[in-house]
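Appendix B: complex inputs.
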Amino acid sequence: MSFGDGPFQDFKLPLVWIAAASVLVAAVVAAVLLLGDRRETLRDDAYGAVRQGTDTVAKPVGAVISAPLHWGGSASDYVRGYLFAVGDNRRLRAELRRTRQINDQVVRLTDENARLRAVLGLATQPPIPMAAGRSVLDARGPFSRSRLIDVGAERGVKVGHPVMSERGLIGRVTGVTAGASRVLLLSDVASRTPVLIDRTDARAILTGDGGPNPQLAYLRGKDAVKEGDLILTSGDGGVFPRGLPIGTAAKGLDGRWRVRTFAERAGIDFVRVLKFEDFSQLVNAKALEGGQMPPYTGSVTTPAETVRAITPSVQPAATAPRPLAARRTERTKRTAPATKRRGPIPYNTYVRQQRERG
Amino acid sequence: MAFEATRPLDPLHWLIPPMLAALLGAVVFTLPLQLFGLRLPEPVWALAPAFAWAVIRPSVIAPFLVLLMGLFLDLLWGAPQGLWGFSLLVGFGLILGARNVMTGQGFVVLWSWFALMTLVVFTAAYLLTMLDSGVSPDLPGTGLQALPSLLLYPFAHRLIERFEDADVRFK
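Resulting structure:
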């Protein structure tokens, strides 16, 4: 490649050098984009318009391409169900016998739970609204594991909403656009989920590493977990509701405790997005804002009056100085303000006063 | 034939169609298909054109198309933006620097170089992910993505066979 007419007309640079310079420029651009990416913050503004636009285009393309797969899957399930009907029948009968034994126990426990809640005056957790959808694209590499589902902002889906399959929690929404949402799976390297071990109530952070079984990090306590323990969401931090099933504990080949997620075992096709944002949506905000707070019944003196009350006054030395004890007694009488009881009143007293006032 | 060999390569012939084919392959392999509990592999289709472009001839446009393919993969897979773009460029730069050694080599030797480029690209992506997330990605999972990517070399070889001798200025 030579330069135009002039003193440099015979000057030629090897194209390899110019190509190498292009590689460097492109690498710098990629590095800047990588340093500026904040997808791990899981914030709405961190997702970006480019990603939203890509998801908007990818969703109909993925839906069209995956439609034959879904039809084929349904057809194969129909044929499989016909061929294996006898075996499935026997298995379901055995499962029904086991379930009937548990059913009576569940009814009794539910009734007892409702009576105890009524006695204690506990408010039950209201049902969380949901939006059902289907996954159209699936990224399952070690550096990013996510799904694109066909429900989006038009159904009220927002960033941070948990997403579940029919077996358990699979992840949460990290990007929303009209008609599509990006779900970050629990096994992604950027995924961190507060969990608890059902048997011991021990807490841990479920940390994805790109593999099928995420790790249990920051696990504390002796014998806090053992093989087969049920892992649930803990609700800590208000990220997820408490009690969503995730999987069972297992020891990995590297000696770390990991979780065999229910969703990974069963596959992910139909999903439900729980429109859960944080615990503030579980209370009646209007009742909190409209209600009156109990009045403060402590001292009503102004700050200046308080300062004067506690500052000892200077008296002229016309007479002989009085004994120190007498001066102290007089100062105590002078500085002690004649006020009512300081500090908030007990709750029972406040309730009685409210009733008396009518 | 000799007259055709001296014409410069048209980017619309040797750059754009392979890029589009690689992106289409990436989209197809993100389908949520599961057979008997097994899912489709997820090879990095962009490796094949990136390797072929570096071997065929030096180009000012090719690095930016490699970056574009990487950014597309990041958006499609939900990875951090710039991860695959940077990783592919590292491998592309390696092959571009060593292309003189590869000139005239056979199928097996070129496949070995392709395997080396795959190793370099995945190592870069692994290290960048480790730095970005603070977690070491799953090594078996990384291998399960790298192995199908190695099998893409025949596509790169076909591109090289077709366009390597098209412009004798770089032989």
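Chain A touches chain B through 59 residues (CB under 8 Å).
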